[in-house]
Amino acid sequence: MARKSGCCYLTNLEVLLIVLFVLMTGITVGLMTMLALYINSQEHSKSCSLVTENPTASVKVGENPYLIGLGRADCTGPVADVPLMGYANPDQTAGGIHTRLFSRAFIVDDGSKRVVFVSADIGMVSQRLRLEVLKALEAKYGTLYRQDNVVLSGTHTHSGPAGYFQYTLFMITSKGYIKPSVQALVNGIVKSIDEAHKSMKPGRIFLNKGDIVDSNFNRSPHSYMNNPEEERKRYKTNTDEQIISLKFTDLDGVGLGIFSWFAVHPVSMNYTNHMVSSDNLGYASYLFEQEKNHGSLPGEGPFVAAFPTSNSGDVSPNIRGPYCVNTGESCDYLNSSCPIGGTKMCVAFGPGNDMFQSTKIIGERIYKKAKELYDSAQQEVYGSLHTAHQWVNMTDVTVPINSTHSAKTCKPALGHSFAAGTIDGGGDLNFTQGAIEGDPFWDGIRDTLLGKPSKEVQDCQNPKPILFSTGEMTWPLPWHPEIVDVQIISIGSVAIVAVPGEVSTMSGRRIRQAVKQELETKNAFTNAEVVVTGLCNIYTHYITTYEEYQVQRYEGASTIYGPHTLSAYIQHFRGLAKAIAESKTGELPKGPEPPFFKDSQLISLLPAVPADKTPTNTTFGQVLEQVKPRYKVGEVASVTFVAGNPRNSGDMRDKTFVTVEKFLMTTRTWKVVHTDASWETRFHWIKGTRGQSNATVEWHIPLSAETGKYRIRHFGHSKKLNFFTPVITPYEGMSDTFSVTKTLYSF
Fold first, then answer.
1. Per-position b or e across 666-700, b if 16+ CB within 10 A of its CB
2. What share of residues in the chain are helix, strand, coil (percent, to 5)?
3. Using CA atoms, how far apart are residues 115 and 205, in angstroms rounded to an integer?
4. pLDDT score of 41
5. Can you say whether residue 595 is alpha, beta or left, with left for phi > 0 and alpha for psi between -120 and 50 degrees?
6. Span between the terminal Cα atoms of the chain, in Å
7. What is the pLDDT of residue 21?
8. Which residues are identified as catalytic?
9. Distance between CA atoms of 353 and 53, rounded to whole angstroms?
10. Is-cis flag, bond preceding 412, omega within 30?
11. Cα separation values, 521 from 39, 528, 701, Å
């Protein structure tokens, strides 16, 4: 490799000579670490990067060859007007912030290969989002970070902004393609990778696992029971209670971060919520990072704690189970419906008294177990890295059923039970789960407006009664994807299987078993640990077993490629695992590339923000409802301001709409103790009429709050039209000063 003119750049030969000199002269491990950081930063600096097919320069120290980097970045998008992604409830639009959303990344390098895993506090990764991120990474790093070595995963919070999809079905339910949503996510994810890239240093990885009880609940037990009895007998429960953690440290044992996979739906925050929130898995991250970063403001500090979801497709955090909220009766077991009110009245509740308390309880349980695993982790991860990726046409996969017969996957379709929703959020119409026959009324409307499903698709999807034959609907763009990512990355004996959808409990177990079996055909993967992580790279709804599909509850009705979807995925993941085990990943065919539609082809249904207005004789930021003069810990301080639409503030990543500030007597200055990223604050934006709106800020004063004087501030932007030209103006609002004391109420 030649020296680049005008840059401080070391050749590979120079690097090797320096490393040999260090090893021969006995310079300390600390200097080795500094040298590795220097080499890495110089080789990958933006100003003088020279990317080759193997552009990484890693230094092996002691027994551990890994270079490790972890990073975190704010990826919160618009927090007003935009639909929240998950429940597909058109009335559930963003109106403030409960907690900010973050993207968390780890990078591992073994000297010849590099892998990246990203867990983002979003509903799921869409194909469009992944393609946009890869384009941005290519522009910055060349071929260093690619589709084969980068995994993007969503935690599946149902309280993140939507609008980042390129297929028609998702655009219709998300008010179209919303550029600010996409830009915030792309920029946040790329920045988290940037931060991980810049922080890389020699380090160690430890694996640990355990069980978390009373934190997840199977919401479709009837479907699960349709799996073979001998298979079910191999497992204690109908959900996976296991949590698997990777602990990252430097060579001195100083903790860098933790990534922990656990199977639970982040739907503790229910469909009545309008605030952007990272939900229960995000709260587990919040607690871990607050502790390890010594109380820094959320999003600050070097320690990174991520909680990606696993095989959580049929798993709810609402462990008290469902009942009819209008009558108190038990819901129908098969249909999850109530005699009066149907599916909408059959709702499952969490362990808490409300969604905030339930989020807190589940998040705390996950955090506490992860912390225990972190503190006791001793099993070190060694070995080479591998990456395997393919694009697959999931509408045309042939799978063997037995020695003489085979079957195929189907063009995408959604069944009638898809419209019923689940016990975590039921549908408004008269659809129920478990429907294996169509409804003449709805089928007639479908045939008139969208077209009748072909006999080919009906036969292929049997016994699913088709509500939407999305694979046959192409206007104005395809309604569902055909080309899907399948991917595995491995770090030593740990294989991370990136599943492009919501995989049910038993489906995840079958994938793990198949991949483990394939890997362990080679001695290098003895005792392989296989991690299934969902919502990766592209969203394809659900993946159930063949037996669960026959029941046609919500999950089966949402398994879009037909009854043999899981078998097709297992077949492809086996192929990737075999290539890894035999070190032949370079021979894998890429497969057909997915489409990247032009922006001009994408639908935008979100109206522009109208001009902001204030009530008579008021100004933006003025207090409408003032705080009280004093509060006790455990109480809620609340203040309401005249506000503008938060969308007028543009990209607010790494900024805040809210601060809670404490007066420091020693310096006579104000210190920010909370922002809108804090669990303790809630920023409610309330949209009024004729362009008027309010912002109510709540501070739920923690028991740990220090006695003293405090104030709450709100920051925003207003919009006015000047001869039809929008003019954006910043404003601030501030509450009166109030005191907080430690005195508690007596009960």
1. eeeebeebbbbbbbbbbbbbeeeeebbbbbbbbbb
2. 25, 30, 45
3. 14
4. 41
5. beta
6. 74
7. 36
8. 316
9. 55
10. no
11. 37, 10, 56
C-alpha distances (whole Å) from 107 to each of 56, 390, 477 are 12, 21, 36
3-state secondary structure of 304: strand
Tokens of 336: 């999850």
Determine the pLDDT at residue 65: 76
What is the three-state SS of 393-439?
A: ECCCCEEECCCCCEEECCCCCEEHHHHHEECCEECCCCCCCCCCCCC
At 164, which helix (H) or strand (E)?
Answer: none
Distance CA 162, CA 397 (A): 30
Query: Which structure tokens are listed for 216?
Result: 């997840």
* Cβ count near 195 (within 10 Å): 20
- Which neighbouring-strand residues pair with 682? 698
- Measured over all CA atoms, what is the biggest interatomic distance in the chain, rounded to whole angstroms? 83
Joined together, the tokens standing for residue 745 give 């109420």
pTM tops 0.85:
yes
- What's the pLDDT score for residue 743? 77
Amino acid (one-letter) located at 645:
N
User: Using an 8 Å Cβ cutoff, are 547 and 227 in contact?
Assistant: yes
Q: Measured on CA atoms in the order 365, 367, 370, 372, is the torsion positive or negative? A: negative
- Report yes or no: 392 and 120 within 8 Å, Cβ to Cβ: no
How far apart (Å, rounded) are the C-alpha atoms in residues 706 and 708?
A: 6
Token output for 86:
């998950």
Helices (H) and strands (E) in the chain, counts: 15, 38
Rounded Cα–Cα distance for residues 249 and 260 (Å): 15
Cα-trace Rg, the chain: 26
3-state secondary structure 350-393: CCCCCHHHHHHHHHHHHHHHHHHHHHHCCEECCCCEEEEEEEEE
User: CB neighbours of 402 closer than 8 A, spacing ≥ 6?
Assistant: none
- Vertex 465: Cα angle to 462 and 467 (nearest 5): 130
The number of residues in the chain equals: 747
Token pair for residue 5? 């003119």
Give the separation between CA 542 and CA 391, rounded to whole angstroms: 18
Q: Strands 114-120 and 150-154: what pairing?
A: parallel
Residue for token pair 């992944």 = 130
574 CA to centre of own chain: 25
In angstroms, the CA 152 to CA 149 distance is 10
Sign for the CA dihedral angle at 496, 502, 505, 508 comes to negative
Range list of H helices, 175-220: 179-198
Looking at residue 744, its pLDDT comes to 57
Neighbouring residues of 747: CB distance < 8 A, sequence distance ≥ 6 = none
pLDDT of res. 48: 34
What is the side-by-side order of every strand in the sheet holding 483-491?
385-393, 483-491, 494-498, 529-533
What is the three-class DSSP state of 90? coil
pLDDT of res. 64: 56
What is the Cα–Cα distance from 425 to 344, expressed in whole angstroms? 7
For residues 382 and 390, give the distance between their C-alpha atoms in angstroms, rounded to a whole number. Answer: 26
Q: Which one, of 202, 196, 199, 75, lies nearest residue 145 by Cα?
A: 196
Give every CB contact of residue 103 below 8 A, 6+ residues apart in sequence.
72, 73, 74, 75, 118, 119, 120, 121, 185, 188, 189, 191, 192
The pLDDT averaged over each successive group of 10 residues in the chain (747 residues) is 35 38 38 38 37 33 76 98 94 97 98 97 98 98 98 98 97 95 98 98 98 97 98 98 98 97 98 98 98 96 98 98 95 94 95 98 98 98 97 98 94 97 92 94 95 97 98 97 98 97 98 97 88 98 98 98 98 98 96 96 94 97 98 98 98 98 97 98 96 97 97 98 92 98 65
